[in-house]
Amino acid sequence: RPRPRRSTRTPPASPGAAGAAGLWLIILAGQWWFLLIGASAVLAAWGYTGGKHPYGYLGLGDLFVFIYFGLVATLGTTFTQASRLSATAWCAAVAMGLIACALLMANNLRDIPTDEVAGKRTMAVRLGDARARLAYAGEIVLAYAVMVFAVPENPWVLLVLCSLVLAVPAVRTVLRTQQMRALIPVLRQTGFLSLAFALLLVVAAVMAA
Predict the structure, then answer these.
(1) 1 pLDDT exceeds 60?
(2) Comparing 24-38, 71-85, 158-172, which segment has the lowest mean pLDDT?
(3) What's the DSSP call for residue 167?
(4) Measured CA distances, 124 to 6, 130, 136 (Å)
(5) pLDDT tens digits, residue range 169-201?
(6) How many Cβ atoms are within 10 Å of 14's Cβ, its own excluded?
(7) What residues have CB less than 8 Å from 122, skipping those under 6 apart?
(8) Rounded to 5°, angle at Cα 203 from 174 and 20
(9) Which of 34, 46, 70, 98 has the fewest CB atoms nearer than 10 Å to its CB?
(10) pLDDT in tens, 94-131
(11) Cβ of 182: how many Cβ atoms within 10 Å?
């Protein structure tokens, strides 16, 4: 049997910095009920790998990543700034959540052999190598497709298409490369894709305003 190796999963962003930024937005907006959402996010972060039955190893990590890195992060930030949620905000939230899930899928895809040995039933393990690769590609494609619904409200969102220069190589690598080591650059590419996508959405919002 293959020998389990030490996990090389990408570490999360600093909880302290994220919490401070979130608290500052809550204070500025006066939306104190957001503290409950923040508390749920902390519990969700702990539950991913904490406790006797971490949900991250039961195939539910992707769902929670979509909810908190996509919907909660994007819609929550938007609401504290604009006190309303537009169609563009919803599309952006879904798109960012899908890209975050793609990043997780790429990481878990690389770890399928060792996760199987360790008994970790991530979504990638449950899907299997071939379908996990298709899932990664599908999440990236859907992230761009969903933004079409925001065009009538803000045509500037088409700027996100500029980030395809990062998306295409990553998807090509995942679909064509069978060597697990070759997937390591995909993590970096997908991370930069998430950042570029978000920044282009900011530019789109500024241009529309």
Answers:
(1) no
(2) 24-38
(3) H
(4) 18, 9, 10
(5) 999 999 998 888 888 999 999 999 999 999 999
(6) 10
(7) 56, 57, 59, 61, 108, 111, 112, 115
(8) 85
(9) 46
(10) 999 999 999 999 999 998 989 988 888 999 999 999 99
(11) 13
Tokens of 202: 């900011």
Q: Which two tokens stand for residue 24?
A: 């500052």
Angle between helices 34-49 and 73-82 (to 10 degrees): 170
Mean pLDDT value across the chain = 88
CA dist., res. 179 & res. 117, Å (int): 18
CA angle 100, 106, 108 (to 5 degrees): 100
Q: Does residue 6 carry a pLDDT above 50?
A: no
130 neighbors 175 (Cβ within 8 angstroms): no
Residue type, 94: V
pTM above 0.70, yes or no: yes
Q: In which region does residue 14 sit, left (phi positive, over 0), alpha (psi from -120 to 50) or beta (all else)?
A: beta
**Contact criterion met (CB below 8 Å) for 45 and 15:** yes
Residue ranges of the alpha helices (H) in 120-183?
123-127, 129-146, 164-176
